[in-house]
Amino acid sequence: MRLIQIVGSVGKEASGPTYLLVRLCASLLAQGHEVTLALVEALSKAMSLSPAELAQTGRVGRDWMARDFSWARIAADMPETYAWLSGGGQVPACVRLN
Predict the structure, then answer these.
(1) Residue among 58, 27, 56 nearest 40 (CA)
(2) How far, in Å, CA of 36 to CA of 28, rounded?
(3) Domain segments of the chain: what residues?
(4) CB–CB of 35/28 below 8 Å?
(5) C-alpha distances in angstroms, 50 versus 7, 42, 47, 57, 62?
(6) Per-residue pLDDT tens for 10-42?
(7) In sequence order, which residues have a C-beta less than 8 Å from that of residue 46 and are 6 or more positions away?
(8) Are 39 and 26 in contact (CB under 8 A)?
(9) pTM, whole model, 2 decimals?
């Protein structure tokens, strides 16, 4: 409840990153998502990064997605996954059961 009060207490006179953060959190709340203080702090930190830091963060994220979630990576994981599904054995590293 405290977080909802914080989000609601920032009026329309707020501007810049604070206003954007509040609008994002309010939108998430309106959609029924849980908004935790940790999420607010992470978003606030991200919104305060310099353009150079944002660019570096973007590069790191893009590299991670290309490495772990590209179609080539998924295709490479499929034979082991299908073998496990059809015959048992060890759970492939790409499969998360929890």
Answers:
(1) 27
(2) 11
(3) 1-48, 51-98
(4) yes
(5) 24, 15, 8, 10, 18
(6) 545 555 666 777 777 777 777 777 777 777 777
(7) 54, 57
(8) no
(9) 0.51
